[in-house]
Design goal:
By secondary structure, the protein is of the alpha/beta class. It is built from eleven helices and four strands, in the order αβαβααααααβαβαα. Helix 4 crosses helix 8 (about 135-145). The radius of gyration is 18 Å and the shape is globular. It has a domain at about 75-145. It has a four-stranded parallel sheet, sandwiched between helices. Belongs to the peptidase S33 family.
Length: about 220
């Protein structure tokens, strides 16, 4: 909010995925007088919801998300509990940094054998180089320690919300669950392809979806 105020915007829309989706949710929930609406790729539902009434596809989503956190999220547990331990490696070794980040591109993309099926090597190297030159590998890891589980279970988002769930993303929330937090979903999309990095994996669809999502958000104010 402080940044947008400095830029001269008293009202705005917000978009995000991953941590950006978390931040976008908080903005929409806490500052409805300023946030016209949100578009998010991440819709964390309140805890403790039942799977009763979910479709087969939605149940599969919950199972895949549970499997991810139980068996594929060691990186998050490391960064949430001992961020500085891995942090030194991430700012000391470019190969170590590349391995740590490339692992996520490989695991979280909608591909069969290699992230390079959809994401160019140059894009991956650009991403890793940005972390390396700015020496932000360690500080990026610390957000897990400082903000893990920080989304208030009681937070509700009443502003218009557009939500997109990509099929190979690491966390997918069924719409009935998402509606428990996001009270005014004006657009819901479930594309057939795409993982955790849609802007790199399916850029044409990503841009179109973002435009249509925010158009639906703004239309809700007319």
């Amino acid at each position: 909010m402080e940044l947008m105020g400095r830029l001269g915007y008293s009202k705005f829309v917000a978009h995000g995925g991953d941590w950006g989706g978390n931040i976008t949710t908080v903005l929409g929930g806490r500052f409805p007088a300023h946030v016209l609406g949100i578009h998010t790729l991440f819709a964390e539902a309140p805890p403790g919801l039942s799977t009763d009434g979910l479709t087969a596809v939605e149940r599969k989503w919950t199972e895949e998300t549970r499997h991810f956190w139980r068996h594929r999220a060691a990186y998050a547990k490391q960064q949430a509990t001992r961020p500085q331990t891995i942090g030194y490696s991430l700012v000391d070794s470019p190969v170590g940094l590349l391995a740590w980040i490339l692992d996520k591109f490989a695991e979280w993309s909608d591909t069969e054998d290699s992230p390079f099926e959809r994401i160019s090597r140059d894009s991956v190297l650009d991403d890793v180089t940005l972390y390396w030159l700015t020496r932000t590998g360690a500080s990026a890891a610390r957000i897990y320690y400082e903000s893990h589980n920080s989304l208030d279970p009681e937070l509700r988002v009443d502003v218009p919300s557009a939500i997109t769930m990509y099929p190979r993303d690491i966390e997918k929330s069924p719409r009935p669950w998402a509606q428990e937090r996001y009270r005014q979903i004006v657009r819901w999309a479930s594309p057939e392809v795409g993982g955790h990095f849609p802007s790199l994996e399916v850029p044409e669809y990503f841009v179109k979806d973002l435009q249509e999502g925010l158009a639906a958000v703004l239309a809700a104010h007319r």
